[in-house]
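Thread title: Can someone regenerate the structure for this chain?

I was given the following input by a collaborator and told the matching structure tokens would be attached. They weren't. Posting the sequence so someone can regenerate them.
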Amino acid sequence: MSGAAGSGTWPFRRPPLLVSLNGSRGAADGPAVPLSPGDLVQAALEAVAAGAGEVLVHPRTPCGRESLSPRVVGPVLEALRGAVAGVGGGTMAGGRAEEPAGARSLAGGGVREPAGAGAEVGAGVGIGARTWAGAGTGSGVGSGVGVGSGVGVGVGVGVGVGVGGGVGGRACAGVGGGSGVCVQLSVLASVPAEPDPAGRVARVRSWTVLPDRAVVRFAEPGARELAEALLERGVAVDAEVPVGGSTEPLARFLAWPVRDPARVRILAELASADPGSTVELLRRLPPVPVLLFGRDAAAWPVLRLAARCGTGARIGVGDVLHLPDGRSARSNAELVAAAVAVREAGA
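Best answer:
Regenerated them for you:
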């Protein structure tokens, strides 16, 4: 929520860190860029283990071209969900998740469940530190070794990938001995994947596997129609607005009468980490969650600013290829670990 962000506080816990796995990068950008579906899955697992709470991916064809085709988007999402269990079903906004009936949601400081739903603690994979707990019947199955079940709180422990499952229909997983986490998957719905605005809307309406969120660039034509199509499909919208150049994208977003603010978040791309202009920006925004990010030289200064403002933040190979000390990053996980340290330091 922008008011909270502007005041330097947040109503629940710190917003999750979003990792941009690949962005517009290619093989020429170095070995840190995940290219194949297998590389993306491994990068996602490692990034979540390092502290990422959300994953953004640019789906690509086998030839490396960005695509919104359901034949490309669906397999990528399914591969990631199969590895990072617990992805899907919910849309997070302002520290809480809204989920359809029958699903469990992890919401800003607690777990909210519909009547009759159960909960579990997913253990066995060290993908993070968040746990799920609650009443009901839960069960867990580890891929490789380990099966656990119980009434009240079900615990699943596994070797390799352990998954906790239960009545509510959402799973948690990780790798190598830790608590299960639930992360959100995002895709970019943009010109590089489909140049025609009407074509982007048609692609979204043809998806057979849905992401939790989709990034809509309001600097591109047809952004409003695309955002509406996504919301109609039940996909939350990350409205990407560049700040520091043309004012048209921000004006276009502000003119959009958002009817479902609980499922809309602003991704403000800052060209520089100027606190004064950022505070002014936050004051102008509607009451929806805000994530600040920068690219290349602006990435780390903006992440520090986001930490001070209490907004969401983004990092990853898709945005920057170097660490805060200037060394080349070897992976998304290394960038995420550095970002977690910056956020914990609060500067």
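The first strand starts at residue 17 and ends at 20.
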